[in-house]
Amino acid sequence: MSHVDTEVRPSNFIRSIIDEDLASGKHSAVHTRFPPEPNGFLHIGHAKSICLNFGIAQDYQGQCNLRFDDTNPEKEDIDYVHSIQNDVQWLGFQWSGDIRYSSNYFDQLHQYAVELITKGLAYVCFLNAEQTREYRGTLKEPGKNSPYRDTTPEENLALFEKMRNGEFKEGECALRAKIDMASPFMCMRDPIIYRVRFAHHHQTGDKWCIYPMYDFTHCISDAIENISHSLCTLEFQDNRRLYDWVLDHLDDFQSPSRTRQYEFSRLNLEYTLMSKRKLNDLVAHNIVSGWDDARMPTIAGFRRRGYTAASIREFCKRIGVTKQENMIEVAMLDACIREELNEHAPRAMAVINPVKVVIENYPENQVETVQAPIHPSNEDMGKRPLSFGRELYIDADDFREEANKKFKRLVQGKEVRLRNAYVIKAERCDKDADGNVTTIYCTYDDETLGKNPSDGRKVKGVIHWVEATTAKPAEFRLYERLFNDANPAAAESVDEVLNPQSLTVKHGFVEAGLVNAEVEKAYQFEREGYFCADNKDSTKDHLVFNLTVPLRDTFA
Ligand code: ATP
Ligand code: MG
Prior knowledge:
Strand content: 15-25%
Number of helices: 12
Number of domains: 3
CATH superfamily of the largest domain: HUPs
Bound molecules: adenosine-5'-triphosphate, magnesium ion
CATH topology of the largest domain: Rossmann fold
Strand order of the largest sheet: 10-25-26-27-23-24-11
Structural class: alpha/beta
Helix content: 10-25%
Shape: elongated
CATH class of the largest domain: Alpha Beta
């Protein structure tokens, strides 16, 4: 499983249904859609749905629409519309034709509501929110009919027209489907299908002051777009009755190949919040720097952190598509990116906790260039030049004045190999008033350049370094998971489960070539982890590197 393979896709129950529908002739083509509500950035759960919907369309030579489900104007924003398009394309998918909006169909949806009223299947109800709740009943008790349920179609047409003309206040009345107040499915107890909202809409402006509800809109939008298989998550299982009921009662949608809804389980990831509402709270309360904070489980966050689209697609492939609710381990996602980067990421050296090394027997003012492989096992990636000189930085953790044999790094009086360069020996060190080492004085052996660690010398340790006069200062953002609790969604408040160490900022140095590091493209900083230049804050004068993923699964 070590390389990303997008050709072979495992089958799943949805593919089996599609295969049957094509074999029986019920459908001659596959047409799916991805229907995000533009009320936040897409997260890794959406990636599952995107890979499923667009992936199926690709594999069956069908089509997949991108449709914004935009029926809640107060919560939606055009910026989200743009970020969502961006993220879908970044994941490697292209929608069929133009972008669709449910709001494209507001005129038709209004007409279909009128059709239901005319057929005596919808009515304008004046119960207030509290009364509506009371009349709805409970899971154990049936509801009661609204006193407005038996008004005539003529009266209801007139009232609905008044709703549309802005003659009722928000919450004063709503249009409800007339279905069954005793249904075991709560969603069938005369659900609201239109409500009054004096809200400006990012697509339709101020044209409407009534907006259709999701359950009424979604099925009709699917049917208008000739969607063959409408794939959604399990929480809509009950609502499938309503999906079918609406279409069953509209004359335009009586074709036997009409759209059908199929449900699969949502992605739940350990240590991760997955609801846009909760993610929005993190942004609103400045717990993170924005929707694209590298700790967010958003597509934009993963991208900023250096995850690749291929690794996210691979993850979605590995988790599969079922009807079983489950919780996926973060390690599974990390493994996908780690495997890819181990194979493909260029290597580089960065010192995150720098301490100065002076090589006393190296000529003053001399800087030489040594060649280092870009990848240890892929020679085709070529070599990179590294400067070496009298003053270097190494990581403070790689030096001890005294240590036992297990410490295979630099110890006073002993030797260590500098990766891609010479063997050095630590002679003595300077310390500040607090006892912290400030400078390590070493000697080097000029016979040891370029020899591999099995050159006969008894030097076990290899450490990384950068040359002090050419290295570039850099900020390192070290990330840990945002939450300490495997199921943060269950916590009373996020404050209880936030990991105070989710971000640590360090200042150190990187080898000179990294001034040209492309943003979002991860390197393996040898012995440190995978890092990429930050796509917002990194500049040539102020390099900022984000930890993509540690070298090993440190939580296992
Ligand atoms: P959220 O609760 O995060 O706001 P949502 O379902 O309300 O999610 P939508 O924008 O309505 O978000 O979702 C668009 C599509 O993505 C829907 O078909 C939805 O079922 C799917 N989706 C959302 N979250 C997940 C998830 N965790 N796993 C799989 N699919 C998801
Ligand atoms: Mg939603």
